[in-house]
Q: What sequence folds into this?
């Protein structure tokens, strides 16, 4: 045995040295952590959550094929869905099946995802459905979503057989900063008019994080507000026309016009028979742009409406005030639905709906440091009323004015 300073080291000294070296290796981030891999457990159908938000539906069965060690996701679509009284089912052009599993929060900005998928030939022949693989943050990451969409033509020649899929950072459709705090792995089927009901199998889904390549995030941008007070009055055609109307699969148009008295804007829903696009929810989304990013911590927004009594009597429609970032803030949205039944005493009178920092005290807030617009939604919930709703003004208070 080699001597150290003329002495032979004892057995325990050697052991302690080995332990010390092992600790250095484990704590200095060698390949153990740099090549960390997350493998989704596909054997337990109960680990999947079916997300019904944003045109989602329940039309899916999820099971497990033990022989192939694969999750089996089978849409329950049919040609008769278009005549369904359930909007989520009848919306065959825009509906989706959105399922996800939770994972430990991870930075996936440098991740490489691999999995195998068996896409039945029926979907490929039909050529309508789109398959979306996506990663999504949880509460800590403001639920930001990033994904990659596959057309059925990309599965040509592989129908009924497993195809190896690889998703790398360049494949995602939005800024990679949205992959910083991933907690959900999403498997989504965009229906696009499909009526096929065949089992789709997925196996060996792994996420290699490549932690050694991850760059630190840029510091949060906090802007100085150009103004701390805004009041938008909707008593001129110019003010009404300046509002942003969102027309999409989830939001439809609404008639906007100056009231006869000139004191505000009449909003007349287009929910009568023949006015609604087939399968549309009928929700309406209107935004008022502020012209620049603002720091909404703290904030208070006041909306002055006059809502006819018929809406509170019917008890269906809700008004959802919201604030939203622009492109720089990844369009992060925060809103709270207001049930009109709680304001029945104000029916036919001026009603002030407020959205403020206080509305988010009980739950973790999304970032509000880059807000560029305020607005509101009419969440229809099956309402058939078309009586005019009057909006007089929207007032925005920031900084010290938010707490006055």
A:
């Amino acid at each position: 045995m080699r001597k150290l300073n003329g002495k032979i080291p004892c057995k325990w000294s050697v052991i302690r040295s080995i332990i010390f070296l092992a600790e250095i290796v484990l704590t200095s981030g060698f390949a153990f952590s740099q090549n960390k891999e997350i493998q989704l457990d596909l054997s337990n159908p109960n680990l999947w959550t079916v997300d019904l938000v944003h045109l989602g539906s329940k039309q899916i069965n999820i099971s497990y094929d033990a022989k192939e060690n694969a999750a089996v996701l089978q849409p329950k679509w049919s040609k008769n869905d278009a005549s369904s009284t359930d909007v989520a089912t009848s919306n065959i052009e825009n509906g989706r099946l959105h399922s996800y599993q939770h994972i430990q929060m991870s930075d996936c900005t440098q991740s490489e995802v691999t999995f195998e998928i068996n896409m039945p030939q029926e979907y490929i022949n039909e050529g309508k459905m789109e398959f979306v693989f996506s990663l999504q943050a949880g509460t800590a990451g403001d639920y930001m979503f990033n994904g990659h969409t596959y057309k059925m033509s990309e599965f040509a020649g592989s129908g009924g057989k497993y195809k190896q899929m690889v998703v790398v950072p360049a494949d995602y459709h939005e800024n990679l900063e949205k992959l910083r705090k991933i907690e959900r792995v999403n498997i989504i089927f965009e229906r696009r008019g499909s009526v096929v009901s065949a089992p789709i199998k997925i196996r060996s889904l792994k996420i290699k994080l490549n932690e050694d390549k991850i760059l630190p995030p840029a510091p949060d941008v906090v802007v100085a507000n150009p103004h701390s007070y805004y009041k938008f009055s909707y008593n001129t055609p110019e003010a009404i026309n300046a509002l942003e109307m969102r027309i999409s699969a989830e939001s439809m148009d609404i008639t906007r016009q100056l009231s006869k008295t000139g004191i505000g804007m009449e909003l007349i829903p287009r929910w009568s028979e023949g006015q609604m696009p087939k399968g549309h929810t009928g929700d309406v989304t209107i935004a008022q742009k502020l012209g620049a990013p603002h720091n909404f911590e703290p904030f208070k927004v006041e909306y002055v409406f006059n809502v006819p009594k018929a809406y509170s009597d019917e008890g269906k429609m809700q008004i959802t005030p919201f604030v939203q970032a622009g492109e720089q803030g990844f369009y992060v949205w925060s809103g709270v639905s207001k049930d009109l039944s709680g304001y029945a005493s104000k029916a036919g009178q001026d009603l002030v709906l407020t959205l403020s920092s206080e509305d988010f005290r009980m739950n973790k807030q999304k970032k509000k440091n880059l807000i560029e617009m305020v607005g509101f939604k009419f969440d229809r919930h099956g309402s058939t009323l078309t009586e005019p709703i009057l909006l007089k003004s929207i007032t925005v208070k920031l900084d010290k004015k938010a707490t006055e």
About this structure: Confidence is low (pLDDT under 50) at residues 1-15, 17-33. The longest strand covers residues 96-106.
